[in-house]
Design goal:
Helix content is 35%, strand content 14%. The protein has 328 residues and is an alpha/beta fold. Bound molecules: N-carbamoyl-L-aspartate.
């Protein structure tokens, strides 16, 4: 970035926006771990300014006309892939989707060869989701295009954490000083990791809770308070983020049964009552209703789960814009 500003775009008048020309300088968005609080605020400010486009009757601006974005999704996705595709299309970019079953990976081609072939067609951005931690990082070193990590194994999911922080900032004004509880399968969740990095950097008081088998060792080194009692984590919380059990990444026997899990870790109305009355209930999706979250809580007045999805489009529009040279 050429210049740093941490206040919200909404508080600036037009002249001052023109005064403050900032440019994103990283080639890729690979993780929250390496971003500074100023970089995070810069992305969130840019994302705030994109929210309005999706509320228009004609939801399209010419900003990225002539740019090509490839979504390479080698792992299942509903929200993230659709969100990137809609974001690209609303900015008039050409978006191409490749999934595992529709790619030559099923014919034995390596991910590196696939990436080199995509590079040869000269897209501007490649968005990658892969079950192997580090896959987007490896491709980013190899090819000249910008890479966005859309989730790599249990490692990071930076765009989810950014849209989560965007939602909190828009609903609460700021992230600093909030008590944020992240509950569930912390050990296998890339959403938890990215949010722990981001929220602690932004000055939140982050508490995590889950069964001991779902809490990675050395978690407190990341600046969070660790609990096995969910009630302690959510007492007086301003934000509760619930997580799905990552069955596809589990080793065997990390919990006795789903019924037992939900007895201790399902967010029901009684438990919401322990938190602040205006607590935000969040979940990255997909929900397992009745396991980690009660249906009436998921659909209740404190829930911002669908708001997260709405802001996710604006956040991804902002990233596509910044990585193709857009300024704020
Ligand atoms: C998450 C993911 O894929 O990591 N979902 C998402 O991107 N919104 C969370 C999950 O799968 O549980």
């Amino acid at each position: 970035m050429t210049k740093v500003r941490t206040d919200s775009i909404k508080s600036l008048n037009k002249e001052s926006i023109e005064d403050v020309k900032m440019k994103w300088e990283r080639k890729d968005i690979l993780g929250i771990r390496e971003l500074s609080p100023d970089e995070i605020n810069f992305i969130l400010d840019t994302a705030d300014s994109f929210v309005e486009i999706s509320t228009r009757d004609i939801k399209k601006v010419p900003t990225l006309r002539g740019k090509t974005i490839i979504n390479l999704f080698i792992e299942a996705s509903t929200r993230t892939r659709t969100s990137f595709e809609i974001a690209g299309k609303r900015l008039s970019a050409d978006t191409i989707n490749i999934t595992a079953s529709s790619s030559s990976l099923v014919k034995g081609e390596t991910l590196i060869d696939t990436a080199r072939n995509l590079e040869a067609m000269n897209p501007d951005i490649v968005v990658i989701r892969h079950s192997a931690a580090g896959a987007p990082h490896m491709i980013a070193k190899l090819i000249k295009q910008s890479i966005i990590n859309a989730g790599d194994g249990a490692h990071e999911h930076p765009t989810q954490a950014l849209l989560d922080m965007m939602t909190i900032r828009l609903r609460k004004g700021s992230i600093a000083g909030l008590k944020i509880a992240i509950i569930g399968d912390i050990a296998h969740s890339r959403v938890a990791r990215s949010n722990i990095f981001g929220m602690t950097k932004m000055g939140a008081d982050v508490h995590v809770a889950g069964p001991a088998t779902m809490l990675p060792p050395f978690l407190s080194r990341f600046g969070v308070t660790v609990h096995t009692d969910m009630g302690e984590a959510i007492r007086d919380a301003d934000v509760i983020m619930m997580l799905r059990i990552q069955m596809e990444r589990e080793s065997l026997n990390i919990f006795p049964s789903l019924r037992e899990y939900s007895t201790y870790y399902c967010l029901n109305q009684d438990r919401v009552g322990l938190a602040n009355p205006d607590v935000l209930v969040m979940h990255p999706g997909p929900l397992n209703r009745g396991v980690e979250i009660a249906p009436d809580v998921a659909d209740g007045t404190n829930s911002v789960i669908l708001q997260q999805v709405t802001y996710g489009v604006a956040l991804r529009m902002a990233l596509l814009y910044l990585l193709t040279g857009g300024t704020l």
